[in-house]
Write a structure and sequence with these properties.
CATH architecture of the largest domain: 3-Layer(aba) Sandwich
CATH class of the largest domain: Alpha Beta
CATH superfamily of the largest domain: Response regulator
Radius of gyration: 22 Å
Function: Involved in peptidolytic degradation of cyclic heptapeptide hepatotoxin microcystin (MC).
Number of domains: 2
Cofactor: Zn(2+)
Number of helices: 13
Keywords: Hydrolase, Metal-binding, Metalloprotease, Protease
Strand content: 15-25%
Bound molecules: zinc ion
Oligomer: single chain
CATH topology of the largest domain: Rossmann fold
Protein name: Microcystinase C
Structural class: alpha/beta
Family: Belongs to the peptidase M81 family.
Length: about 500
Amino acid sequence: MRVAVASFEFEGNTLSNQIHGRGDFARKVLAEGAAMLRAVEGRDLAVAGGMEVLAAAGLEVVPLVAAQGGSGGRVDDGFYREIRDQIISGAAAAMPLAGVYLALHGAMITESENDPEGEILAAVRQVVGPAIPITASFDLHAHVTPRMVAAADALVGYETYPHIDAHNTGRRAAEILVGAIRGRIRPVMRLRRIDALLPVAGGATDDPDAPMAKLRRSARRAEQEGRVISASYFPVQPWLDIPDLGIAGLAVADGDAEAAAQVADEIVREMWDRRREFEIPNFAPQEAARRALAHASPRVLISDAPDCVGGGAPGDAPAVLAALLEQATATPSAVLVVDAAAAAAAHQAGVGAALTTTIGASLDPRFHPAVAVDAVVESLHDGSFVYSGGVSAGTPGRMGPTAVLRVGELRIVVPTHATYEYGDEQYRAAGIDIRALRIAVLKNPMNFRTLLDHDTAWVMVAGPGPTTPSLDSIEWKVKRRPFWPCDDLPQPTYLGD
Ligand SMILES: [Zn+2]
């Protein structure tokens, strides 16, 4: 009995001006057919977890394609169709199949498609017919659509944020698939969505008092009580200006559609009821730098939330660099700003050379002007590293040629390419131990939490950018109004599913 397996993972952002294609995926994970096994096996990825469960159940895995591109704006239509068609034609060629498992993100967008995962799931359903079970694992920030739910038997989201359970989520999706293939369970799924968005930074599951940790406990309770097989919460990737974006609850039950609908509704209602608990204080860059310098803690992490690569921003915003150049050149500190031209100039100049250059705003100049610096080239690197955890655990990260520039005590890491930040991999690849510094800037509103200890405090930055923490500051053009938090709604408005 054969099960077709593929992964196609990318998180989109309509506020980004970037288009991503083969090169962006190839720098992360891109492998077809049998090569896919070597690319993902043994790693902490959702697709690897799923394949382990299928193999252990005695099912033959048919590897189609693994493509993981991280985050950004939209995926190039041509590249998207290539991978989509590999999945569809691969499944067709592998028939007869006992089942299909797909590791997806759930919030990918392409140049012309706002629901590519829904399109892929519907096309695979067309290929295998109504009787063959299809399950998929999703990121917790998935934008789950009715088309996805109609096409699949079960969808399962990550439990954690920072995301540390991709592998286990793949296992859970595959376990449901195995149960359905063996006829032990008859999965039925229901989705409930509310027209509301929540600040990403307030969604931590590693703080037991945070609202998302409470949601997690509620979902697990619904499973432990046997009401449903799987309960997922989707606070959604909020930087998608598309009409029907909204927070969602989703549950899979064994034959009991009513139970699934009830649990899905309880989950999304709890998210709505706790919506004000998701707010996290954030400060303009100069004020954030001032607070970091004045903080009693020996170390302070500044979270540059508006330029989060993991949320789709290009990582080239120099707003915090500008603030540190004004305030912190006498303080052991480090900041990272993507700039291919500045990295190349530093590599040309060589270690020890004086370099006058501009940094930042080279990919997206809309939010902050480039910053001029007179620096010394402290060190040069090839920018390669391996992720120590998170959704990319064990896979390579490739910043490309990277330079460390120094202005007084401030180190400026200048990579060629933006990379998803999980912990301090980028700094370590540039030879910098941020634990030895007073201030370090991370371009992520959540994953910096993996670096916190009792000597480390944090400050979050506010302001414009593709991943601004202020959702009500965004000029929404397409999203249907009214919705929370841009409109003050006393009651939840359900999106029709
Ligand atoms: Zn996510």
